[in-house]
Write a structure and sequence with these properties.
Helix content: under 10%
Radius of gyration: 24 Å
Largest sheet: 5 strands, mixed
Strand order of the largest sheet: 6-13-11-8-9
CATH superfamily of the domain at 67-170: CalX-beta domain
Length: 174
């Protein structure tokens, strides 16, 4: 003969449990999703960013936490070495390893600038990190301006890019 003994456990909530979460989206002029960020709830601080190449293909998609990186545009350089800088904001833990590569705009690699790619490590959030790139001296003539880009991506570390692309404008040194 088999005897069964048991108990029933009943769990009843003792208060209201709510996870309020808001997701903000940003779109470019063509209606493509370029950033999203989450505030509140269990995914607070999570964000994503998408970068498109000049012909509209998705080039970089990054997802990360509350550490936000921005590739700064350098302004205009006079055909000598220039640095593309990445700044950080939010709660960042270092080190953060970034990959980078140059991309043609109106400036063409080998004609107007030296193509470059590699990795760089962000170790100090307050100073950011730079990548030195080199325009080709004498490649821009008259009043022409040429633009090329340095694209960054997070390889390791808890960070995401708000803007992963730095624009570099080359002018003549005259």
């Amino acid at each position: 003969m088999l005897a069964l003994a048991g108990a029933i456990l009943c769990l009843a909530p003792t208060g209201n449990a709510r996870a309020s979460e808001t997701t903000n989206y940003t779109y470019d002029e063509l209606g493509r999703l370029v950033t999203s960020s989450i505030q509140g709830g269990p995914n607070a601080g999570t964000s994503s960013s998408t970068t498109f190449d000049p012909v509209g293909n998705r080039a970089i998609y990054a997802v990360g936490g509350s550490c936000t990186l921005t590739a700064e545009d350098t302004g205009t350089t006079d055909e000598f070495s220039v640095s593309a800088w990445v700044s950080a904001s939010g709660t960042c833990s270092t080190p953060i390893t970034l990959s980078y590569s140059t991309q043609n705009g109106t400036a063409i690699a080998g004609t107007h600038y030296y193509s470059k790619s590699g990795t760089v490590v962000l170790t100090n959030v307050s100073t950011g990190v730079g990548v030195s790139v080199s325009p080709i001296y004498g490649s821009v003539h008259g009043s022409d301006l040429k633009v090329f880009y340095v694209n960054f991506a997070v390889q390791s570390g808890n960070a995401t890019f708000a803007d992963p692309q730095s624009a570099i404008v080359i002018s003549t040194s005259n």
